[in-house]
Amino acid sequence: MSILQSLSTIVQRVNAAPDLQSALNIIVRDVRSSMGTEVCTVYMADHDEGRLVFAATEGLNREELGNVSLNFGQGLVGKVASREEPINTSNAQEHPDFQYLEDIGEEAFNSFLGVPIVHHRTVLGVLVVQQTDRRSFDESEEAFLLTMAAQLASVIAHAQATGALEPSNDRTVVNAEFRGIAGASGVAIGQALVVSPPADLYSVPSRRSRDIYEELVFFRACVSRVRKDVALLSSQLADRLPPEELALFEVYAKMLDQHALPAEIEALIEAGEWAQGAVARVVLAHLRQFEQMENSYLSERAVDVKDLGRRLLEYLQQAAHEPMIYPENVILVGNEITATMLAEVPREKLAGIVSLKGSHNSHVAILARSMGVPTVMGAVDLPFTEIEGNELIVDGYAGVVFFNPSLELRASYQQIAEEEQLVSRGLEALKDLSCETTDGHKISLMVNTGLASDVSRSLDRGAEGVGLYRTEVPFLMRDRFPSEEEQRAIYRMHLEAFAPKPVTMRTLDVGGDKSLPYFLIHEDNPFLGWRGIRVTLDHPEIFLPQVRAMMKASEGIDNLRIMLPMITHMEELDQSIALIKRAYKELLDEDFKINFPSIGVMIEVPAAIYLTREMASKVDFISVGSNDLTQYLLAVDRNNPNVADLYLSYHPAVLQSLQLIVLAAHEVNKPVSICGELASDPGAALLLLAMGYDSLSMNATNLPKVKSVIRAFSKQEADHLLQQVMLMDSADRVQTAVEDMLESRGVTRLFRDSRRERDAR
Ligand code: PEP
Ligand code: MG
């Protein structure tokens, strides 16, 4: 077998292991045999105790597993861990760092190769191979072991995290903690409800059925529908396919035989599991077995089992016969929570959100912030299919989810939730006060909207208008494009609710992490692909009805502003304006009495920074989309939790760019606002005010906090802070300076977010 093959076979086997200890046992067994060594051992780090525990071995004394350990830095193994580097020696006993470990039986082995197992900069353990003969392991062996350790690190981290929940594990951890990324601030205590996309075997939660008998009948009906489909397909293809390919249908029929897969599934249903969960569990167990097989014919059968499993699941899901009953305080959990999933839970029941995929500035996190629902994104290690119905605590400040919380932890989070309510009640008094500094400098605070529920929340909090209405949100909630008339009605409601205050409607901005279920875009690099204005300019039949609907909706109110996303080239701006003018002319010809709206450009692509002046001179206003601008400036995917701690809005390059944009737009006397999430950060708001931004647009939840901070400082103080931070060369230093300034005025309670998040890292 080639090295690559053995690497991937081992990783697959380890992946399929039911728990951490079995995973480690597979590692030592397989690595020893593929490298042909006498010993292979894993030492696991216990960071609380600062020790490396003898955890799994082939070749040394198994009886001492778990009993023997070393300090970091102690002996060769400890040195590998503390230096985070391999050690390769032909004579371990004579190595200056050698330390004899009693009872594990390593005295006979002279050559030693140890590599660290590192996951996200944390040493999880050390992987060691040993031999009796005195010889150095060669370069390719060292490289193999290093590669192995690097590949296994995330598998081990995952097994470690999920181990805390194993029902068979008598050490079920109290306050089991799963780290993710802060998505929306606040804390929530509630019951996990797992949601999954259709026909995805990997996302089906384990759930108790309400009636075992009904569930069995339901499952059998679905099996017979799949049997019929398979028979029909087979007869339709009978004269077109060669016999060896037709044999596949026989395999399917055998697998669907009452004594095969269905019998196993029914056994689980009889034990109380709902049919979807039983199908997923049985099929996934078979898949794991098949994938471990070296025989390629058999491992290909995995594809067939998966296909059958999906077909069954599809029928079960289509015909799902039980309406969803939402408990109070739902914590919505899923592999990838989407805007539509959010919208399905009644707002009064939705307490928190946990998504395994996504990061702080994913769109679903932005929606959650605007709804004020505490959210953790990127909780990649949470075994989400196994936790339905359990109590969870969502800490949306620190980006942490707790499973099986103790009474003490629960009480302390309850207290934080109560404090939060006090703070927000205190802030209600600010609603009708203007947003100005202590020396009278005003800046207007606008709100970002999308959901219908944003309207009343925004008005309650004293927003001076809408700085960004994400029109794609109503598009996301449907199964087809809304018609011009449907759009007009939605836009009219929005414009009327805020009139006479301005409402900035952004033209459809899909692509990236926002895909419409009925207009899917498949790309390798979606954030650098067909997004925003690029899509709508290619589809005037989508763009024109949208701007027509917006303008029609503004008849008699005149508070509409139209904003264009993702503009990179001057031509895109020219073409967009030409289309809007064409739509306007058509509407005048159709006798609508409307005024031409203000037009604005979003600056969210680095190239546009350098065209701000030219663009601003062609439009009425500029608005900075700092979410995308930051992702593109720092080359950090806003949706990827692996790089979330590099997404730094206080990075000097971001601050310099933001300053350049205001200066350029003001040169041609055009107002500038910022509608990215940075505007809702109370500390950043001070810097933006000092830079000269005319307005800040943010989620309704944070608006009172930002107002309260701006009202606590003078413009002079903000200017001074800006001068200082513009000389700094790192985001961390800027953040510390800003937080110190806020702290000096005692407004720290308002930015619990950043401090706790940083502490958690
Ligand atoms: C932005 O990019 O900053 C922005 C406001 O747009 P969105 O977050 O919807 O991409
Ligand atoms: Mg954007």
What's this entry about, in short?
With 761 residues, this protein is of the alpha/beta class. The radius of gyration is 30 Å and the shape is globular.
* Number of beta-strand segments: 22
Classify the helix fraction into a percent range: 40-55%
Instruction: Indicate the CATH architecture of the largest domain.
Output: Alpha-Beta Barrel
Basic shape: globular
Enumerate the spans where pLDDT stays under 50 for 5 or more consecutive residues: 754-761
Largest β-sheet summary: 8 strands, mixed
Under the CATH scheme, which class of the largest domain?
Answer: Alpha Beta
- What's the CATH H-level homologous superfamily of the largest domain? Phosphoenolpyruvate-binding domains
Radius of gyration from the alpha-carbon trace, in angstroms: 30 Å
- What is the rounded distance between the termini? 41 Å
Number of domains: 4
The CATH topology label of the largest domain is TIM Barrel
Q: Taking all residues together, what is the mean pLDDT?
A: 90
Strand content: 15-25%
Query: What structural category arises from helix and sheet content?
Result: alpha/beta
Q: Count helical runs.
A: 27
Strand order of the largest sheet: 7-14-13-9-10-11-12-8
Ligands bound, unique: phosphoenolpyruvate, magnesium ion
Describe the protein.
The chain has 761 residues and is α/β, with parallel strands linked by helices. The protein has 4 domains: 3-163, GAF domain (Beta-Lactamase, 2-Layer Sandwich); 176-197 and 324-423, Glucose Oxidase, domain 1 (3-Layer(bba) Sandwich), CATH 3.50.30; 211-318, PtsI, HPr-binding domain (Enzyme I, Chain A, domain 2, Orthogonal Bundle); 438-760, Alpha-Beta Barrel (TIM Barrel). The protein is built from 27 helices and 22 strands. α7 (261-270) crosses α8. The longest helix is centred in the first third of the chain and has 26 residues, at 212-237. The chain starts with a helix and ends with a helix. The structure holds phosphoenolpyruvate and magnesium ion. Magnesium ion (MG) is lined by residues 565, 604, 625, 627-628.
